[in-house]
Automatic annotation (TrEMBL):
Residues 115-314 form the Tyr recombinase domain. Pfam families: Phage_int_SAM_1, Phage_integrase. It is found in: Cytoplasm. PROSITE patterns: CB, TYR_RECOMBINASE. The active site is at residues 157, 192, 266, 269, 292, 301. The gene is xerC. The keyword Nucleus does not apply. The lineage of its organism: Bacteria, Pseudomonadati, Pseudomonadota, Betaproteobacteria, Burkholderiales. This is Tyrosine recombinase XerC. The keyword Cytoplasm applies.
Length: 323
């Protein structure tokens, strides 16, 4: 690892004083001091490009430098770290009475693009949904299979899933819980902001729920057992399943199904949205099914859809093939 002695020092005497200040008074580690030195050497090079000494740079110059670094491929996070180093130098210069205003004070790095939500491919999602763990406890197998069907088949959030009651009672809606109407094939859930929505439950999910409900109360002595919670999905002690338990069970199940990617509940929600949009192209419908208040939240899935189309093009179109 390089140290400050191997890095060419900037020629500006103010920078040298500042580096000595942070070395002695702040007692920075050698690696941190090296990074400060590199950042200020970069600033000195940029200032030379506009033929100005460092202490005459303005916020407009700093913004121009940020734009140059960004267009050259520097990440928003990397630029933010550089700006932090520059900001420290100009703060010190202000305390020394060398400048009247810190030109970096109100300059921010470009925002990093939001990462795309992770979604399974259609084949992997179907593989997980159809997975049958031979030899597993039938009670756990039926419960976990039903949870996967609802997460992928209805696009539920994990909080909405664990908030479902087996049968709606007088406290269900009042306490912000949801329920499944198997006869109508609908899930009634309470999402973010206590917003209620109804989503269709497909035939595969209905069948999985019926199989689970037939076994749900068996270990607890029947429906009247005081140990059995009103929740649709319960643990082995009869209490409502927690979101963390669903995460753990789903991760384990995806590994058992042979998926290379550990699956979490929100990944199935993303898969639901992405696959539905690929097939229908109806962004508004997907927004309603997901319970998004703003269409811009749903639009991220159009980027996933474009990725899918781009892969199809690259694989199939004659003009996309490179020699």
């Amino acid at each position: 690892m390089s140290d400050v002695s191997s890095v060419p020092l900037p020629a500006d005497p103010h920078v040298l004083r500042y580096l000595e200040h942070v070395r002695v008074e702040k007692r920075l580690a050698a690696r941190t001091l090296t990074l400060y030195t590199l950042d200020l050497e970069k600033l000195a090079q940029l200032a030379a490009g506009v033929q100005l000494p460092l202490l005459q740079l303005t916020s407009a110059h700093i913004r121009r430098f940020v734009a140059q670094m960004h267009s050259a491929g520097r990440s928003g996070r990397g630029i933010a770290l550089i700006l932090s180093g520059w900001r420290g130098f100009f703060t010190w210069a202000g305390r020394q009475g060398l400048i009247g205003h810190n030109p970096v004070q109100d300059v921010r790095a470009p925002k990093a693009p939001k990462p795309l939500p992770k979604a399974l491919g259609v084949d992997d999602a179907v593989r997980l949904a159809e997975f049958d763990h031979a030899g597993a406890d039938p009670w756990l197998e039926a419960r976990d299979a039903a949870m996967v069907e609802l997460l992928y088949g209805c696009g539920l959030r994990v909080g909405e899933l664990v908030g479902l009651d087996a049968v709606p009672g007088p406290d269900t809606q009042r306490q912000g819980r949801g329920w499944i109407d198997l006869q109508a094939g609908e899930a009634h859930v309470f999402g973010k902001g206590s917003k209620r929505r109804s989503v269709p439950v497909g035939a595969a999910a209905v069948a999985a729920l019926q199989a689970w409900l037939a076994l749900r109360a068996a270990p607890f002595g029947g429906d009247g057992s005081a140990r059995l919670d009103a929740a649709l999905f319960v643990g082995q002690r009869g209490a409502r399943l927690t979101a963390q338990s669903v995460w753990l069970r789903l991760r384990q199940r995806s590994q058992q199904a042979g998926l290379t990617t550990p699956v979490h509940p929100h990944m199935l929600r993303h898969s639901f949205a992405s696959h539905l949009l690929q097939s229908s192209g109806d962004l508004r419908a997907v927004q309603e099914l997901l319970g998004h208040a703003n269409i811009t939240t749903t639009q991220v899935y159009t980027r996933l859809d474009f990725q899918h189309l781009a892969k199809v093009y690259d694989a199939a179109h004659p003009r996309a093939r490179r020699k």
